[in-house]
Amino acid sequence: MSQPTDWTASEALREIDAGRISPREYAEALLAQCRAAAGLNAFIHLDPEQVLEAADRAAPGSGGRLNGLPVPVKDNFDTDDMPTTGGTPGLRDHRPARNAPVVQRLIDEGAIVMGKLNMHELAYGITSNNGAFGSVRNPYDPSRIPGGSSGGSGAAVAARMAPVAMGSDTGGSVRIPAALCGIAGLRPTTGRYSQAGIVPISDTRDTAGPLARSVEDLALFDSVIAGAPGELPGLDLKGARIGVPRGHFYENLHPETARIAEAALGALAAAGAVLVEADMPDVPGLDEAAGFPIALYETVVELKRYLSEHNLPLDFASLANAAASPDVAGLMQSLLTEEGAIPEPVYREALTETRPALKAAYAGWFASNEVVAAIYPTTPLPAAPIGHDETVELNGEQVPTFPTFIRNSAPSSLAGIPGVTLPAGLSADGLPIGMELDGPAGSDRVLLSLSAAVEAILPATPAPPP
Q: Which residues are catalytic?
């Protein structure tokens, strides 16, 4: 059999349950890989002794579905036995009194919180080029970004430091690093998982989500966190109607992204899926009108609430002024000014009129085209070089980095519908490219079932080079 570090979470749990490997032996293998891949800078906090002590306490046959499984979490999840920094200097010494409910669900099922993962500062970006804790590096090319904001989560799982990791997603922050690191990621329907105890951006848009190397693992973690039935509903790819929204989602793609996307669509057609070409003409404009007004207004409100709830000795202004990454510092500090702050009437219109129109546009598109999901490239291009925080080259032009990478994933985030990104192949330069499947609100288990069927016909992504 393959090396323990290559096992998916589900494979590792089967090996542990059968007694073929002990939780300590498995943890030791992962920790050895963490040391070997330390140059990727995936972790902010990792205490090997703490992990091994927890592994020793994992009783065989305890009944927990994640018994003895080490699971690192993004460093914006509250943990009661290690710091929660949010990747920002102002929270460097923040020690929450209790675990975030999502983390507690994992612990209750026997998981070991393996450590805290590096991220884009305050989760406000997609490069994970963190000015306080250093850049996270892509396992497939360490000179490139892993995506973000859950960049440490993507890098750790891809580099075999852990079989699965938790991230958070506001506009693509689980799916983008999963896609750029050649793994799978789930953004559940907004509200499916508790958002309590996670350093916030936007109550309307935020959700936790798992990153893993198999859809089976995503489904397992979704079942544990959401309390959903363990078995996925049966779904046959043959005859399944899948929408292909060419407009917007397939425009101005990197040539290698376009090539791999078309190969994925060809594989679906060959497997008997019915591809329904149908644009979403209203979606991009509605997202553009409402997305940032909601996120930026709620950032101030939600971070103030988080700081107050945790009795932290700093306010929003001091948190913003301490930010170490130039892009995040500029954005946060602008929200303190009259020119940069979002007026409440603008926010209210975005929240109560534009966002409902966006949700209705998605629901109408799924219903009128009778499709179970939409499919499109998760990002318009592969991973960019580290340091290209403001602009990146796409098809010979310099384009803004952040809006370009979230172009495809942001609209469904605002609509609150579930999305799964799957690894679809490597570019000619050896960089992973992902395809995303989005489903109607609340269709998470059906979407995971479809994703498992699609995963089976896509090419397997090789491990990153040693």
A: 74, 149, 173
